[in-house]
Amino acid sequence: MRTRRTPLALAAAGVLALLAPTAPALAARHTTVDRQHDVQHVETSFDDASGPAPAVDPAQAEGDVTALRVVHGPHRVRMVMQYAALSRPSGSQDAFHAFRLKTPGHRYYDLFLDAHRGRPQGERDFSHAYRFSPVRCKGLRTHIDYARDSVTASIPRSCLGNPRWVRVGGAAATFAVDVDAETFSGYLDDASLPGQLRDYIKLGPRVRRG
């Protein structure tokens, strides 16, 4: 299933990309706690990405990532991104939920969910990062739980090459589009960067298979 390649989707995917430095190993599971009230507000147009600099909006609860939990089990890697608030998209709003994984051998994977009014559970895009080639993965599961303000993804280890360890990062972006003005404004949050916004998703530590 492919994500819509609209200017909005491409812009959000560009914001939610790349890698991070090395980190120590942990066993089986890890939880990254992200500071609340650190969502970044951005405004730009379809043909000009040089809008005002992003700024923290402490009043924005929607799409504010509060935690990222990773469980590396015998057969699956399960990831749960928790939010302060998560509502079903309405109108022209799109909500992007992104997971990036790194495995031994410098292999990177991206899992994007593009949730909008027509697809509240999101359109999935699972690919090899940088190569932008799709990953065929029978058994990939995702679920957006609006009642619990969470997004869960479960990936069979076989789809990742049965790695000894994984490093995982997460990020979210919520955009509203003004088609007439050809502009959009949005809110972004990285699960591991409190009060900051960079051009990559920061990865957590190594989580070894349990």
From TrEMBL:
InterPro entries: TAT_signal. Residues 1-27 form the signal peptide. It comes from the Bacteria. Keywords: Signal. This is Secreted protein. The lineage of its organism: Bacteria, Bacillati, Actinomycetota, Actinomycetes, Propionibacteriales.
